[in-house]
Design brief:
This protein has 167 residues and is mainly α. The chain has eight helices and no strands.
Length: 167
Protein backbone atom coordinates (compact mmCIF):
# COMPACT_ATOMS: atom_id res chain seq x y z
CA UNK A 1 0.00 0.00 0.00
CA UNK A 2 1.28 3.43 -0.86
CA UNK A 3 1.12 6.41 1.47
CA UNK A 4 -1.36 8.13 -0.87
CA UNK A 5 -4.06 5.50 -0.26
CA UNK A 6 -3.76 5.59 3.53
CA UNK A 7 -6.39 7.57 5.37
CA UNK A 8 -5.86 8.36 9.02
CA UNK A 9 -8.18 6.84 11.58
CA UNK A 10 -9.31 10.31 12.63
CA UNK A 11 -10.23 11.20 9.07
CA UNK A 12 -12.16 7.94 8.62
CA UNK A 13 -14.07 8.62 11.84
CA UNK A 14 -14.87 12.15 10.69
CA UNK A 15 -16.16 10.80 7.37
CA UNK A 16 -18.32 8.24 9.19
CA UNK A 17 -19.73 10.94 11.47
CA UNK A 18 -20.52 13.08 8.42
CA UNK A 19 -22.40 10.14 6.91
CA UNK A 20 -24.29 9.67 10.18
CA UNK A 21 -25.19 13.37 10.14
CA UNK A 22 -26.52 12.98 6.60
CA UNK A 23 -28.50 9.98 7.81
CA UNK A 24 -29.86 12.05 10.70
CA UNK A 25 -30.94 14.69 8.19
CA UNK A 26 -32.77 11.98 6.25
CA UNK A 27 -34.62 10.85 9.37
CA UNK A 28 -35.79 14.39 10.07
CA UNK A 29 -37.26 15.01 6.61
CA UNK A 30 -41.04 15.00 6.20
CA UNK A 31 -42.40 11.83 4.57
CA UNK A 32 -43.17 13.46 1.20
CA UNK A 33 -39.66 14.92 0.94
CA UNK A 34 -38.10 11.61 1.94
CA UNK A 35 -40.08 9.91 -0.83
CA UNK A 36 -38.56 12.29 -3.40
CA UNK A 37 -34.98 11.33 -2.54
CA UNK A 38 -33.49 8.55 -4.64
CA UNK A 39 -31.87 5.89 -2.47
CA UNK A 40 -31.69 2.10 -2.22
CA UNK A 41 -34.61 0.33 -0.55
CA UNK A 42 -32.40 -0.93 2.30
CA UNK A 43 -31.41 2.63 3.22
CA UNK A 44 -35.01 3.83 2.98
CA UNK A 45 -36.13 1.01 5.30
CA UNK A 46 -33.37 1.85 7.79
CA UNK A 47 -34.40 5.54 7.78
CA UNK A 48 -38.08 4.68 8.30
CA UNK A 49 -37.14 2.27 11.11
CA UNK A 50 -35.05 4.97 12.80
CA UNK A 51 -37.96 7.39 12.69
CA UNK A 52 -40.11 4.85 14.55
CA UNK A 53 -37.57 4.41 17.36
CA UNK A 54 -37.85 6.35 20.58
CA UNK A 55 -35.00 5.04 22.74
CA UNK A 56 -31.86 7.17 22.50
CA UNK A 57 -29.42 4.26 22.28
CA UNK A 58 -31.51 2.49 19.64
CA UNK A 59 -31.60 5.65 17.53
CA UNK A 60 -27.83 6.09 17.90
CA UNK A 61 -27.16 2.52 16.75
CA UNK A 62 -29.59 2.89 13.86
CA UNK A 63 -27.85 6.10 12.75
CA UNK A 64 -24.55 4.21 12.78
CA UNK A 65 -26.17 1.55 10.62
CA UNK A 66 -27.50 4.19 8.23
CA UNK A 67 -23.97 5.63 8.03
CA UNK A 68 -22.62 2.16 7.24
CA UNK A 69 -25.17 1.74 4.44
CA UNK A 70 -24.31 5.17 3.06
CA UNK A 71 -20.60 4.28 2.93
CA UNK A 72 -21.44 1.64 0.35
CA UNK A 73 -23.14 4.08 -1.99
CA UNK A 74 -22.63 7.60 -3.30
CA UNK A 75 -23.52 9.71 -0.28
CA UNK A 76 -22.65 12.91 -2.14
CA UNK A 77 -25.71 12.57 -4.39
CA UNK A 78 -27.99 11.98 -1.41
CA UNK A 79 -26.50 14.98 0.41
CA UNK A 80 -27.00 17.08 -2.74
CA UNK A 81 -30.65 15.99 -2.91
CA UNK A 82 -31.17 16.94 0.75
CA UNK A 83 -29.54 20.33 0.12
CA UNK A 84 -31.75 20.87 -2.94
CA UNK A 85 -34.81 20.33 -0.74
CA UNK A 86 -33.59 23.00 1.68
CA UNK A 87 -32.48 25.52 -0.97
CA UNK A 88 -35.89 27.26 -1.31
CA UNK A 89 -36.03 27.74 2.45
CA UNK A 90 -32.56 29.31 2.47
CA UNK A 91 -33.55 31.62 -0.38
CA UNK A 92 -36.71 32.71 1.45
CA UNK A 93 -34.75 33.37 4.64
CA UNK A 94 -32.22 35.49 2.75
CA UNK A 95 -35.06 37.43 1.14
CA UNK A 96 -36.67 37.97 4.54
CA UNK A 97 -33.40 39.31 5.99
CA UNK A 98 -32.93 41.61 3.00
CA UNK A 99 -36.43 43.05 3.57
CA UNK A 100 -35.62 43.61 7.26
CA UNK A 101 -32.39 45.42 6.35
CA UNK A 102 -34.20 47.68 3.88
CA UNK A 103 -36.89 48.50 6.45
CA UNK A 104 -34.25 49.39 9.04
CA UNK A 105 -32.43 51.60 6.53
CA UNK A 106 -35.64 53.33 5.48
CA UNK A 107 -36.39 54.19 9.08
CA UNK A 108 -32.83 55.34 9.80
CA UNK A 109 -31.95 57.28 6.62
CA UNK A 110 -34.17 59.58 4.57
CA UNK A 111 -32.42 58.68 1.27
CA UNK A 112 -32.91 54.93 1.66
CA UNK A 113 -36.34 54.98 0.00
CA UNK A 114 -34.85 56.61 -3.11
CA UNK A 115 -32.02 54.04 -3.21
CA UNK A 116 -34.58 51.25 -2.88
CA UNK A 117 -36.60 52.74 -5.76
CA UNK A 118 -33.48 52.88 -7.95
CA UNK A 119 -32.70 49.26 -7.26
CA UNK A 120 -36.33 48.10 -7.52
CA UNK A 121 -38.20 50.17 -10.14
CA UNK A 122 -41.49 48.38 -9.31
CA UNK A 123 -41.57 50.12 -5.94
CA UNK A 124 -44.27 52.68 -5.18
CA UNK A 125 -42.03 55.37 -3.71
CA UNK A 126 -44.87 57.51 -2.38
CA UNK A 127 -46.42 54.60 -0.48
CA UNK A 128 -43.06 53.50 0.95
CA UNK A 129 -42.29 57.05 2.15
CA UNK A 130 -45.73 57.32 3.74
CA UNK A 131 -45.30 53.98 5.51
CA UNK A 132 -41.78 54.86 6.69
CA UNK A 133 -42.94 58.23 8.04
CA UNK A 134 -45.97 56.66 9.73
CA UNK A 135 -43.77 53.93 11.26
CA UNK A 136 -41.43 56.57 12.69
CA UNK A 137 -44.38 58.50 14.15
CA UNK A 138 -45.72 55.25 15.62
CA UNK A 139 -42.41 54.55 17.28
CA UNK A 140 -42.18 58.07 18.72
CA UNK A 141 -45.77 57.89 20.02
CA UNK A 142 -45.07 54.45 21.51
CA UNK A 143 -48.02 52.91 19.66
CA UNK A 144 -48.32 49.32 18.37
CA UNK A 145 -46.13 48.80 15.26
CA UNK A 146 -48.89 48.48 12.63
CA UNK A 147 -47.22 50.69 9.96
CA UNK A 148 -43.84 49.18 10.85
CA UNK A 149 -45.24 45.77 9.82
CA UNK A 150 -46.97 47.21 6.75
CA UNK A 151 -43.67 48.73 5.61
CA UNK A 152 -41.96 45.37 5.98
CA UNK A 153 -44.77 43.65 4.06
CA UNK A 154 -44.61 46.20 1.23
CA UNK A 155 -40.84 45.78 0.93
CA UNK A 156 -41.11 42.00 1.14
CA UNK A 157 -43.78 41.93 -1.59
CA UNK A 158 -41.56 43.96 -3.92
CA UNK A 159 -38.54 41.73 -3.24
CA UNK A 160 -40.58 38.57 -3.83
CA UNK A 161 -42.02 39.95 -7.06
CA UNK A 162 -38.49 40.71 -8.26
CA UNK A 163 -37.40 37.18 -7.23
CA UNK A 164 -40.21 35.67 -9.34
CA UNK A 165 -39.24 37.79 -12.36
CA UNK A 166 -35.49 37.20 -12.11
CA UNK A 167 -34.74 33.60 -11.10
Amino acid sequence: MSDENLISKTRRKRQMLDLQDAGKALTRLPAEQLARIEMPASLREAVVACRAMSKHEAVRRQLQYIGKLMRKLDAVTIAAQIEALHAPTHRQTALFHRAERWRTEMLAEPGAVARFAQEYPLADVRRLRELADAALLEREADRPPKRFRELFQAINDILQERERQVP
